[in-house]
Amino acid sequence: GAVVSQHPSRVICKSGTSVKIECRSLDFQATTMFWYRQFPKQSLMLMATSNEGSKATYEQGVEKDKFLINHASLTLSTLTVTSAHPEDSSFYICSARLRGATGELFFGEGSRLTVL
Amino acid sequence: AQTVTQSQPEMSVQEAETVTLSCTYDTSESDYYLFWYKQPPSRQMILVIRQEAYKQQNATENRFSVNFQKAAKSFSLKISDSQLGDAAMYFCAYLVPYSGAGSYQLTFGKGTKLSVIP
To answer: CA A86, A92, A95 angle in degrees (round to 5)?
Structure first.
């Protein structure tokens, strides 16, 4: 199956700093990528939908100035957590939809962010 | 709004036995996809099985099969001959296109934690 890679898998940062998480589709072109947040023992919560070459669409309640999403190419989307605070600590997962296809999404390995 | 409900927060099954995880969903759409994803302790989301709403035949993938009841909006997952490696969180998910945007939104249930007893 198609492979989606997320980096870094774990990151620890100080409060007030910014952290960038990358999501890459390794062997296919992804027209659309999705960013999710998962709290411990909970389900995945969609944060935003990222379309290549256009602005991301954020879900209600997600601060677009806090979580900057860039989808500069068909294989790369980035999530930047700006001015991170301890409450931003969470597990962030990206997924990608194969260009031209419908249905299945491919997930990255996830990134665990800890803000001290 | 579409919702996905998994009414069993936790389930357990004896190794080699069969277990069924339930999932119901609410939608007014006619064209959509349903999925079961597995999330082991590594947290990597793994696709177990998918079902297109327009297909009447239930999807099967080796030891995994679904019972898709479109009219009842039910989509249960049956795991046969359960193995220790099946222990994980299982999420039911529903995929529907945004109207006009050309992109898709995946809605997850809250998950069912499956334990496999040796």
So the answer is: 165
Distance from CA of B99 to the nearest CA of A (A): 13
Residues of B contacting chain A (CB within 8 angstroms)? 33, 35, 37, 42-47, 50, 52, 91, 95, 97-98, 101-111
**Structural tokens at position A30:** 């992804």
Q: How far apart are CA B3 and CA B29, in angstroms?
A: 12
Question: From the list A32, A93, A112, which residue is nearest B103 (CB)?
Answer: A32
Q: What is the rounded distance in angstroms from the CA atom of residue B90 to the CA atom of residue B111?
A: 5
- Asked if pLDDT for residue A1 goes beyond 80, the answer is no
Rounded Cα–Cα distance for residues B59 and B65 (Å):
6
- As a whole number of angstroms, the distance between CA A82 and CA A76 comes to 19
Fill in the DSSP letter of residue B17. Answer: S
Distance CA A44, CA A67 (A): 16
C-alpha–C-alpha distance, residues B5 and B8, integer Å = 9
pLDDT above 70 (res B41): yes
Query: What type of residue is A76?
Result: L
Q: pLDDT per residue over A2-57, tens digit each?
A: 789 999 999 999 999 999 999 999 988 887 899 999 998 889 999 998 888 888 98
In the chain, the amino acid numbered B97 is: P
* Closest to A6 (Cα-Cα) out of A21, A18, A16, A20: A21
Q: Rounded to the nearest 5°, which phi and psi values hold at A86? A: -55, -30
Residue A89: count other Cβ atoms within 10 Å of its Cβ.
16
Residue A100: what pLDDT? Answer: 62
